[in-house]
UniProtKB/TrEMBL annotation:
Protein topology in the membrane: Multi-pass membrane protein
Subcellular location, record wording: Cell outer membrane
Designated name of the protein: Polysaccharide biosynthesis/export family protein
One Gene Ontology cellular component: pore complex
Domain SLBB residues, every copy: 193-271, 337-424
A Pfam family assignment: Poly_export
MF GO annotations: polysaccharide transmembrane transporter activity; porin activity
Keyword annotations from UniProtKB, A to Z: Cell outer membrane, Ion transport, Lipoprotein, Membrane, Palmitate, Polysaccharide transport, Porin, Signal, Sugar transport, Transmembrane, Transmembrane beta strand, Transport
Entries under PROSITE patterns matching the protein: PROKAR_LIPOPROTEIN
Family per similarity comment: Belongs to the BexD/CtrA/VexA family.
Limits of the Polysaccharide export protein N-terminal domain: 102-187
């Protein structure tokens, strides 16, 4: 009699599985004070759901800033005023000419501007991928390392080369890059080799040396000529390689061969109507001192700028570290969604900064995917409350049916909103299996008692 009673009790337990195990599910309609409506996630409904207003939070400004290279160059101030000695008149001027040198072909230097041009047309035409980012009249400036940077080719070192050698090198690089090598090269601006002129001239200044050799008479003509009122007592002094040479101005005007003297890069000319070499020597010493002063001033300015950039970078790094520490301590206001149900990782997921997150992001990144054994692919829900205060208890359950894997594309377009809950229901067989797991100890105990009795 007891055996039969035990068996009947076991059958009764099995028949009351629904009372023995309760699991979460989405119930449509009005229940527990909430109004729940279930809408399928379709292409049209994705557009409807994404209409709800939401602007993602942004990263702090420190993450959008860089130390940069902009800043003020604080040097040593303006150069000192030049000092000139009192004029005197010589009895006779000695002629000291520099050693004869044959002008060498022009070699490209740092600061020169070169243009790449097609052989036809009336203006510089762009080569494919070469001059797309520059003004047609600017070309390429030879940088401090002696190179020019050409898109699709890279850096090409042309400093120290003649124009012909540079063309040959560019031809090889274009062929190597499989680019049509039909081009011509010309120098648009000559900035690397210069001659300075001062003293008794109309317009003291610096003259560039170009493809054509710069002659002494041409240099004097470009600065407006000598302005001395006593040419018989004046001279042109040439400072070259640490030596001062002298040509009397009157002799220069009378002997045309002296005017053909070629000038070299770094030469300094001084038209002097003073008695001795002191003024010229003072001028050249002054030029050297000014160059050293400017170089030292620029070095100090660059050092100050480097320090300023380092301070900016350290400040930005500190701001970023502080923000990341606040995030780690959960002390920063963030937007979240919540993952529950039959997913591999339940919990809270931070919504990204500066961009929208999708349902696919939550499933595959936040939850690490669905539980293959227990999840019901028919019932993947995004539970979203109403933003209308008058409908505070209204809730929309957006249902995604993943039996059709093509619907994953809809998940990738479905945007999440703060406080969304992603819920994945369990399989019916999972609910039954868990019920059995919970009542198995009772069944085993009842069966054992029935056998013993």
């Amino acid at each position: 009699m007891r055996k039969h009673l035990s068996i009947l009790l076991a059958i009764g337990l099995l028949s009351s599985c629904g009372a023995a195990y309760h699991s979460s599910r989405v119930v449509e309609g009005a229940a527990d004070g909430n109004k729940v409506r279930v809408l399928p996630i379709t292409a049209q409904n994705v557009l409807l759901a994404n209409r709800s207003p939401y602007t993602p939070r942004e990263l702090p400004a420190a993450f959008h800033s860089s130390a940069g290279a902009a800043g003020s160059l604080y040097g040593g101030g303006p150069a000192p005023a030049p000092i000139h000695a009192a004029p005197t008149r010589p009895d006779a001027l000695e002629t000291r000419l520099p050693p004869a040198r044959k002008p060498a072909p022009y070699r490209i230097g740092v600061g020169d501007v070169v243009l790449l041009a097609t052989p036809t047309g009336t203006s510089v035409e762009q080569l494919t991928g070469l001059l797309a980012a520059q003004n047609s009249r600017q070309g390429y400036t030879v940088q401090d390392d002696g190179s020019i940077a050409i898109a699709d080719i890279g850096r090409v070192e042309i400093a120290g080369l003649t124009l012909q050698d540079a063309e040959a090198l560019l031809f090889q690089r274009l062929v190597k890059a499989q680019i049509d090598p039909t081009f011509s090269l010309e120098i648009a601006e000559f900035n690397s080799k210069k001659v300075s002129l001062g003293g008794a001239v109309a317009k003291p200044g610096v003259l560039p040396i170009t493809l054509s050799p710069l002659r002494l008479k041409e240099a004097l003509a470009q600065v407006g000529g000598a302005t001395t009122r006593t040419p018989e007592y004046s001279s042109v002094r040439l400072y070259r390689d640490g030596t001062i040479y002298q040509i009397p101005l009157k002799q220069l005007f009378s002997d045309a061969r002296l005017g053909e003297l070629p000038l070299l890069a770094g030469d300094s000319l001084f038209v002097d109507d003073r008695y001795d070499l002191d003024q010229a020597e003072a001028y050249f010493r002054q030029q050297i001192q000014l160059a050293e002063f400017r170089q030292a001033s620029r070095g100090a300015a660059l050092s100050n700028l480097t320090t300023e950039i380092a301070l900016r970078r350290n400040e930005l790094d500190e701001q970023r570290r502080t923000y990341l520490d606040q995030v780690r301590l959960d002390a920063v206001d963030r937007d979240y969604v919540y993952l529950t149900g039959e997913v591999k990782s339940q919990g809270r997921m931070d919504l990204p900064l500066g961009r929208q997150a999708s349902l696919a992001d939550a499933i595959f990144k936040g939850a690490n995917g669905l539980s293959i054994k227990t999840a019901d692919p028919r019932h993947v829900y995004v539970l979203r409350g109403s933003h209308d205060p008058m409908e505070f208890n209204a809730l929309t359950a957006w249902q995604l049916d993943l039996r059709n894997a093509a619907n994953l594309a809809l998940a990738a377009r479905f945007e999440l909103r703060p406080n969304d809950v992603i819920f994945v229901a369990e399989q019916p067989v999972t609910r039954w299996s868990r019920t059995i797991d919970q009542i198995s100890p009772s069944l085993i105990s009842i069966g054992a008692n029935a056998v013993n009795n």
